[in-house]
User: What shape does this take?
Amino acid sequence: VFMGSALKNKGVQPLLDGVVRFLPNPTEVLNYGIDNDNNQERVTLDCDARKPFLGLAFKLEEGRYGQLTYFRVYQGVVEKGMYIYNAHQRKKVKLSRLVRCHADQIEDIQRANAGDIVALFGIDCATGDSFTDG
Assistant: This one.
C-alpha cells in the first residue's frame, strides 16, 4: 500500500518507484483486438510503430476548448492532420489537434507512436470507441 500527497510531494517518489517495480512494462503485456470482418476472430496487437494504426478512446472530458478525448495508441502511428476511422460510428474523422497532457499543462504534438497515451480535440466519439487508419 502506498500513500502520499502530491500537494507537498510527500510519498510521490516511492509510489512511482513502486509502479516501475511492480507493474508490467506495456510492451510485455499481450493486448488483443476483435476482427469484425473475420468472424470475431481474436487478433494480437503488437506495440510496434511499423504496424497499421489502432487506437482506443478510453476517457472523455469536457474542457474549456471542447471535448477532450484521452486516447491510447496500441499500434502504429497517429499524426496531426491525418484521417482516422471510428469503427463504432463507421466514419472517418480528421485529427485537427493532438496533445500530450501533464498535470494541468497541455503540449501540442505532431505525432504519437505505439504505446503513447495522448489527447485529441474535436473528435466526436464515445468511451471505448476504437480507431484505425483504415
Remarks:
- The first strand starts at residue 31 and ends at 35.
- The chain is about 10% helix and 45% strand.
- The mean pLDDT is 89.
